[in-house]
Amino acid sequence: MDNTNNIIEIKQLWKEYGANIVLERLNLNVKEGDFVSIVGASGCGKTTFLNMLLGTEQPSRGEILLDGMPISREPSVERGIVFQKYSVFPHLTVLENVTLGLEFDAGSVTSMMLGRSFAVHKTHITDEAAQMLKRVGLEDAMHKYPHELSGGMRQRLSIAQALIKKPRILLLDEPFGALDPGIRKDMHALITSLWQQQKLTIFMITHDLSEGFALGNRLWVFDHVRKDDQAQGRYGAQVTFDIDTQQDTTSERKAVMA
Amino acid sequence: MAKIMNYCPPRTGRLLLGMLPFILLIAVYLMASDARLAVNPADKLLPSIDSFVSAIDRMAFTPSKRTGEYLLLTDTLASLSRLAMGVGVSALIGLSIGIATGVIPLVRSTFSPLVTALSLIPPMAILPILFISFGLGELSKVMLIVIGIGPIIVRDIQLRVLSLPEEQLIKAQTLGGNSWQIIVRVVLPQIMPKLIEAIRLTLGSAWLFLIAAEAIVATEGLGYRIFLVRRYLSMDVILPYVCWITLLAYLMDWLLRLLSQRLSPWYHQSQGESNG
Q1: Could you tell me if residue B3 is inside a domain?
Q2: Does A87 contact chain B (CB < 8 Å)?
Q3: Which residue among A8, A72, A131, B231 is least packed, with the fewest CB closer than 10 Å?
């Protein structure tokens, strides 16, 4: 198999908590520019898997490679994250929420000491953040605080916040789960266009199967292949379907829905 | 007719209703005072308005015969500076230790049990230790306030930091922040309104410890004066002093709330602003 443009390689990955095996024998490769939707019943390790990509949990066995190197064991700039909620900062305006990431590594003394930028630096950063906000459609809300925004706008902000750092992979943890259907549709359009324009590599957890099919180009279904009714935790979940959703999928769709 | 739980008085009505208990209290006092003074004009327990006025004039607006100072002013300045120092130091300790124990697990494991133990010591019980080790001067009074309210603020701030959503701290890390930057830009600004709330709530205890310390050892101060004139049953001085302390406490509370609204408008707006 061609390994040259794999951005993420997952090798023999296991995750267990004591005797309870959550995930077993995951061997997966993701190419740069892939948009992977992850579905599966609750409790089958989707979130555990995302947390391992994020760095907040560590694999019990096996490894995850990012660009051929073992992935950092704590959350870092190469990974952007959008949670379902709480991922914007309530004490900062929309604009400040986005500039924050730029101010953290501005490299100046004030950035090191105070996490802030001033003067020329500040103007430069503000321009960059304003452009990003325009891209997600928040240019009119730049000076509002998050509590003044609707749920959809808050998720737009969270996406802008993550993208300003140009992460290698973008992780979305049920990002649209709490939104109204209409708003959700707008968000689908937004994330699809950002994905295509910026060649992002995206992992998205969703519990909405049709959302999984509609977004992105790959769909992973997490499920248990083996079951032991006497010991529920004996076998972990695996990726039972790895579907290219841009091909004709009617037969596979039926298989998953079944 | 509407249920009583649905009936809200109009604005002026609310104001009048709020005044009513005060007016009633004053009226009851005046009647009781009149009744006692009618029996015994030398009664000191419930002085008349006239004796209050002359006592206030003596304490606040006439220089003391002995020292030439305005006693109320001297007392107020002495007490307020002790209170400000005690509360200021407590807030600073509370903020730094609370954030450190809240954010850094290593520090939390080390100091959290100690802080809990310290906060359970009854401060008045170690007042003698303070007098012995810090002398009878200002330091021991300030220390009593610090020991009394410091650990409470530390614990409160620690809990507030721990209740910040985990998602925010993870997000900040993915944005490239190191521990210090995240403390300064993410944790501290969100904790400031909580700190001010903690100070507002502990201010009552701070006054308690201040007056207790002043009652025992001092040469001026609001608490000192009250306990001094107690010997002469001078209710005409004690009651105005108590009212004055209450007024000062109220003003401080109000100023702190104002400060918090200035510093963290986002916090008060998202709270729906009714936590007065």
Answers
A1: no
A2: yes
A3: B231
Q: Which domain holds residue B130?
A: 60-266
- The predicted model gives A129-139 an average pLDDT of 91
pTM, full prediction: 0.87
CATH number at residue B151: 1.10.3720.10
φ, ψ for residue B69, nearest 5 deg: -95, 160
Residue B240 is assigned to a structural domain of this protein: yes
Q: Does B267 touch chain A (CB under 8 A)?
A: yes
Pairing status of strand A237-244 against strand A218-224:
antiparallel
A96 touches chain B (CB under 8 A): no
Q: What is the mean pLDDT of each run of 10 residues along chain B (276 residues)?
A: 84 90 95 93 88 91 86 94 96 96 94 91 89 88 93 94 94 93 94 96 94 90 93 91 95 95 90 50
Establish, for the pair of chains A and B, how many residue pairs have beta carbons separated by less than 8 Å. Answer: 89
Give this complex's ipTM.
Answer: 0.89
* CA A245, A251, A252, A258 torsion-angle sign: positive
Q: Tell the residue number behind the tokens 């994250």, with chain if given.
A: A81
pLDDT the model gives residue A191: 92
User: Would residue B227 count as lying in a domain?
Assistant: yes
Cβ distance B155 to B116 under 8 Å? yes
Q: How many domains does chain B divide into? A: 1
The answer to whether residue B65 sits within a structural domain is yes
